Backbone:
């Protein structure tokens, strides 16, 4: 039976399960975490080189948990039914992190506040240039916008036109079960859209306000001249007198064309109409500013939250703004929580940190040297550390900023009589080195066999190579290994 690593009398005793290769690192990390978090622990080093290859069935036959164990932590790569281990250990079982360097984070994570996720800002997502698209194309784009979090799908018309097919497009989008708005100034075009089920009209000013009472739906009032707000009061008065429900949009101007002054006009409009519904066309900034859109969207949503602007109009046409709706969906929840709870919008939801990472954990040179000295199996571990890419294997430790030079080092060793790489392994290493090089360039966290963290845009990544190595693990001795970093967690 594994012996406790410390004799502190604690209510909680955590039993860590690991393999031989990760033993030294786990002892170091577990001791530090246990001292800080105040729990007793023990470590079970099972007869396998790399912990990532363990299965619940295999662990259940070998685990030796002390009687005082209150929780068992198995490697993060251990997939399958953990109840088998629970029965053998007599204690609850959970998966630890896949990288030991994140063990402290695993024990220190704060649960998401129960109230997080509420919001009161509507997202109106515009499909631009709809007259140029087929109804099928419009419906497909609408589905994507709905999935990303749109409350309204806006059917965008074109200036000067009179699109005869607007009714068909509105009906097709309405059939998806979403609210539809229409972006047009032409009364005849708007009439067809409203007759087909459009519930909101963008936009109304002195040129078309005379027809608004006949549409029977909500409208967005805009000024005739955004820079002076000329005509806005008259349009609001006309619509109010006719009993037309409305939202006010003073118009957000792009940077270089009075952006700052246009923001001040939103504040002034709110002061003059304290109870009115308002809308901000944030797409005017994200589409017209050559910068990643997530931060821009979040800042504008924060202003909307503070000023009571309860709807935003966005679009995602330009490449750097093609995830705007998804960004706004998380951003509105973030700013709502920050404003209503009076907390800074930090460590609540990291999905909007996409280019960089919220936290970066990297091994030290000493840790890599220890690993290089202890590796006995024939597989390679990849790391980003100290400004370079590192490949560690038996009697080899290559490092450079250039992944091609690392690959060249492996080829040179093979020509000198060293280990040959088969095509599958070479492809795997090339794929992982490309990820590692990206992480090094951007300052992101890299963990072998795991996807890079792109926030809300992260795509799950299946480690085919790791699965292959797990299938090949001998069943008699339990000895094998894979290419995952530092033993694949505890």
Residues:
């Amino acid at each position: 039976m594994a012996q406790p690593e410390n004799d502190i009398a604690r209510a909680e005793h955590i039993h860590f399960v690991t393999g031989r290769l990760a033993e030294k690192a786990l002892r170091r990390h577990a001791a530090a975490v246990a001292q800080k978090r105040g729990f007793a622990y023990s470590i079970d080093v099972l007869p396998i080189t790399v912990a990532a290859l363990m299965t619940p069935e295999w662990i259940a036959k070998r685990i030796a948990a002390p009687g005082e164990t209150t929780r068992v932590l198995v490697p993060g790569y251990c997939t399958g039914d953990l109840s088998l281990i629970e029965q053998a250990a007599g204690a609850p079982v959970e998966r630890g992190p896949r990288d030991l360097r994140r063990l402290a984070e695993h024990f220190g994570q704060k649960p998401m506040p129960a109230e997080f996720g509420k919001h009161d800002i509507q997202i109106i997502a515009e499909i631009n240039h709809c007259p140029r698209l087929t109804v099928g194309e419009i419906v497909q784009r609408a589905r994507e916008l709905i999935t990303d979090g749109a409350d309204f799908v806006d059917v965008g018309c074109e200036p000067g036109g009179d699109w005869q097919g607007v009714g068909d497009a509105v009906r097709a989008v309405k059939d998806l079960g979403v609210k539809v708005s229409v972006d047009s100034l032409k009364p005849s075009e708007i009439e067809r859209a409203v007759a087909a089920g459009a519930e909101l009209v963008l936009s109304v000013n002195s040129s078309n306000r005379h027809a608004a009472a006949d549409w029977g739906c909500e409208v967005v009032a805009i000024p005739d001249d955004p820079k002076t707000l000329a005509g806005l009061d008259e349009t609001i008065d006309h619509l109010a007198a006719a009993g037309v429900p409305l939202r006010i949009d003073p118009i957000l101007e792009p940077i270089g064309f009075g952006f700052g002054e246009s923001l001040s006009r939103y504040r002034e409009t709110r002061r003059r109409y304290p109870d009115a519904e308002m809308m901000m066309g944030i797409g005017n900034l994200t589409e017209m500013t050559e910068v990643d859109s997530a931060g821009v969207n979040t800042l504008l949503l924060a202003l909307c939250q503070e000023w009571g602007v309860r709807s935003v109009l966005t679009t995602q046409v330009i490449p750097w703004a093609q995830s705007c709706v998804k960004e706004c969906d998380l951003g509105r929840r973030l700013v709502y929580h920050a404003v209503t709870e009076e907390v800074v919008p930090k460590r609540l939801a990291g999905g909007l940190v996409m280019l960089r990472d919220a936290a970066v954990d990297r091994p030290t040179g000493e840790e890599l040297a220890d690993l290089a000295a202890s590796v006995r199996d024939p597989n390679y571990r990849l790391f980003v550390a100290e400004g370079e890419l590192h490949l560690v294997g038996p009697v080899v430790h290559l490092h450079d900023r250039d992944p091609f030079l690392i690959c060249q080092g492996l080829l040179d060793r093979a020509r000198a009589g060293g280990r040959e790489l088969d095509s599958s392994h070479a492809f795997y290493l090339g794929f992982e080195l490309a990820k590692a090089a990206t992480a090094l360039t951007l300052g992101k966290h890299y963990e072998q066999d795991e996807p890079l963290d792109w926030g809300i845009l992260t795509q799950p990544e299946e480690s085919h190579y790791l699965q292959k190595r797990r299938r090949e693990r001998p069943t008699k001795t339990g000895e094998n290994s894979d290419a995952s970093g530092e033993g694949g967690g505890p």
Observations:
- The first strand starts at residue 13 and ends at 18.
- Residues 473-488 have pLDDT under 50 and may be disordered.
